[in-house]
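Sat 14:20. Reprocessing the chain from the morning session after the first attempt stalled halfway. Input below, unchanged.
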Amino acid sequence: GVVSSSSSDFQVVFGGRRFVEDEDVESRYEIVKSIVSNDVKNEEHLWENMTGDTMQLGTCQDMCPEFERLKRQQFRSTTAFEKTNGKFDHAKAIKGYRREAAGVEKQTLQQLRPPAILKKTQHYLMAVLMTDEYLSGDQESREKWCGFIHDKFRGIRKDLKIQNVRNEQAIEILVVQIRFFLIAPYYLRDAWIDQSDNDKYLQDCFAELKELFLTVKAKVQRRNSLATLTTSSLSTTSITILNYEAEIKAYEILRNIQSEHILASATFMLHTKEIKYALALRSNIVGMSSVRFFKLIKKVPFTFACACFPHFDKLRMNVLMMLKKSVSTKNPLLFSVLKKQLGLGNEEEVGRFLH
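Finished this time. Tokens:
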């Protein structure tokens, strides 16, 4: 969920030296650019010798490496979310996603954030930028906010991939991102914002976590000297359930209601409360049991309710179709009854839905 912190909790010291505001940015940028070019050459052997199980952790201790901060400042590629009093603030800068392309220098260890810094960066995004100040703005500002978070999350996932981080820390990072992708459409529900990117990133994270759970589970079982299992048997017969695994599988069920394959993959987790929530909600969605669904939705955790949010309008329309058959001038329908059956908070929300 959303954590409660203030921006003062996230003071950053850049490599032991505080950036001087009036320092010649262009000169400093050229110096750092030269250092990065040399590091790319000197570190080539590290990446060439990496194997499937090898992690090569970066050394950047900031939310955004100095080279990127200076480059963006030099070329005026900054955002309002990274400024203080209208000026670019190095302490608020966050590394973005960079697509690999021909002619683009590879990232060096000093440009890669290790898992602990990635978690800190993600915590900053959720604690400082996911507040009413940003969520209650107009459509344009919220659209920019959503795009900013998406870009920074992609940058975090990219750093994990380059470093080949495939452990419990990577799982924790992706779980937070999935929770965000689930609740974002709810917070943006009254704005006409295209959610296709958000949905794509959600499905991407589901796929990445599926592989991570298998990898980490195999490591855990090897450490415990258990019998060697194949990847296929891990996904169907293993009784080991990792932290967050049932939660993520429950979200996956709710966002892919028609998938029997995803449903079948949860058989070894049927006893968990997360899967029980998901199956009960799914049953009401598939059976169009609208009234029971909206009673149940008030009892489940917030992220589970948000996972079901795309189904709300269809279920509410089903309520209206059923009521249409029973309502007449002699038997009018009270707003209070309609509010309850539609699962809405007040009569104003009922009015908005009906219009």
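Strands lie at 83-84, 87-88.
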